[in-house]
Input
Amino acid sequence: MDTIISIIGGGISGLFASLELSNAGFTNITVYEASDRLGGRIHSVPGLGNSGKRLDLGAHWIHGRGGNPVWRYVQEEKLKLSENASGDADGLYLLPGGIEIEDNILEKTEKVLDKIRDDLEELTSEDVGFKSVGEYYDEKFQEYLNENEIDSERVETMKVIFNWFRLWDMADSGTGDMKLQSVSSWSEYIDHSMEELDYEPNIENGYQVLVEHVYNKIKDKVTVKLNAKVNKIYWDQNPIQLEIRNSESNSLCLVASDEVIISVSLGILKKHHSTLFQPKLPANKIQAIEELGFGLMNKIFLYYDQPFWSKDNPGVQLMHKTKITGKSIINGGKYGERLELW
Output
């Protein structure tokens, strides 16, 4: 089919879109990527030391199996999985000073918190009378403490675990504050089946392997242009006109396209939608872009000559007696803004 299709953004969603379209018989597809690499939030780099392994600065593990399209692709294409899978809140739970929390207190508190979360899965904001997940957590956990006779020292330890639980959910939900997480949308999240396994699979030698694999399947069917930043989309014209700047030569050109797929990140849309789309998008689209939130999870990689932790149970969860607000780095000036838009 000769339909001219332009895909803006060379992340994994843009690459998969080009793969699906080429498989469907479309022959005139171009992917425009503003940076000098493909993958977007998937970004594997050489590891530290002499391990020969890659580090994933962005996406790391395959989040669930079941109907997860990434998992289906990995299985169908027989991509090799790493022997080192990703756990979830595993290992030791330590208070300041390296003091390990007693198992019985930890297990009891986790059971209470898991029930609070499980109950929320079946509810809406109208059912519980709260708009935010953070408010719901606070209220239900305090109710439990009030309704049970627990000595003060144990209560303080349980509060420490509760604080960690909220921080863990903040990272898992991609928000800087659970009071910004909507109750009404909580149950809409698709949590793919773990298929009775308690770990998340990792792709051998980094998530970039997925990007490379998809690219190798499309490279002879799809045109991919790097350093090609789309400045403006004249979407009311027929055909649609794209203003594209090449960052290497600084040259500007107009490209006609019958269909356009936008696969850039929400951060890019938030910053550029008012100038990117000509004319401006309808009010409902602008409202959706501006009101949708997207937090971030940061990684810090530490390299040791020898492990000091147990290889059988490698996780370390750091607990804090004082409440941590979890203020988003998005509010951290120019560096926060750069990270959000990455």
About this structure: The radius of gyration is 23 Å. The chain has two domains: 4-59+207-291, 92-197+310-329. Confidence is low (pLDDT under 50) at residues 326-342. The chain is about 35% helix and 15% strand.
